[in-house]
Amino acid sequence: MNALPLLLALALIAPPELKRAKDRFEFGAYADAAGTLRQLLAGDPDLSDDEFVDALRMLGIAEYHLGDLPQARAAFVNLLSYDPDYALDPFLVPPAIVEFFDRVKKEHEPALAPLRERRRSLREQQRLANEAKRRLLSEEAARTGPPTRVVRVEQHHYLFNWMPLGAGQYQNGDKAKGTAIAAGQVATGLVSIAAILVHNQIADKVDRCVSGEPGCSSPPYSDSDRRLLGRVEAVKYVSAGLFWALYAYGVWDAHRNYVPLVETEISPSGQGGSLKLEWKF
Fold first, then answer.
1. Residues 130-177: pLDDT tens digits?
2. What's the chain's Rg over C-alpha atoms?
């Protein structure tokens, strides 16, 4: 029996007391772990069979480490009453404890055999019940035929309404508008970035002038260079404004057409279908 999946599952869903005992057990504080487990098991806890088995496994090992072999034996016998086929993992448990457990199991084999047979009978009954259920559903499906409609449910995410590049439009199914918004934002964004770079390059490399020189009414740049910088700066701000205008329009349009849940009714024969939009919060 591989204990790793069981240990992982118990770590996620185990009651607080069992998890606390497990933490102390793994830390090697066997006295604290044994005390916590004895208190937990004495209080008729709401545990599954697997959780009972894991608690009794830790209690038996802890009692063995503490030298109380009768209590360790009692814990292991109790464990075997839940799972007569249980075996300690020799890779995780010291050999002496594995041998002790196997010896206890062998000594109580006459009492464990009926338990084991009963468990096998219950598993067989469950298998037969599941098979009968599948047969019943299969016969009913054959009698009623295929479904008259198939509903496909698509969940839309509200966060997409705030994303740039037409993400909200694509989610809402308006791909043409989403492509136009994305292309516009990419173009205006690139123009704005290019204008910033050109403006900085011109500002760093042009010759400076001093007041009083011809064509230098506003030093340190000449009038011609200042006009050029002004045009580049205008392109920078206009393109940036267009970018954010497209973004604002995309957010507004995405919210206007947003439907959180889309249910599409599809004909099983594939001959078209109808679209049903539904708001759900």
1. 888 888 888 877 787 766 666 677 777 788 888 888 888 887 778 888
2. 37
Separation CA 12–CA 10 (nearest Å): 5
pTM over cut 0.90: no
164: exposed, middle or buried (Cβ count in 10 Å: 0-12, 13-18, 19+): middle
List the alpha helices (DSSP H) in the chain. 4-13, 16-27, 30-42, 49-65, 69-82, 95-107, 109-144, 167-171, 175-205, 223-256
Q: Which residue's structure tokens are 């999946």?
A: 5
pLDDT at 253: 84
Which sequence spans correspond to the domains of the chain?
4-107, 158-278
CA atoms within 13 A on the CB side of 175: 0
* Buried b or exposed e, range 168-195, using 16+ CB within 10 angstroms: bbbbbebeebbeebbebbeebbebbeeb
DSSP 150: E
Q: In sequence order, what are the residues at sequence separation of 6 or more whose Cβ sits closer than 8 angstroms to the Cβ of residue 98?
A: 88, 90
SS3 87: coil
Q: What are phi and psi of 150, to 5 degrees?
A: -125, 130
What are the structure tokens assigned to 52, written together? 């009972």
Q: What is the CATH number of domain 4-107?
A: 1.25.40
Tens digits of residue pLDDT in 62-88? 999 999 999 999 999 999 988 888 899
| Integer Cα distance of 87 and 158 in angstroms | 51
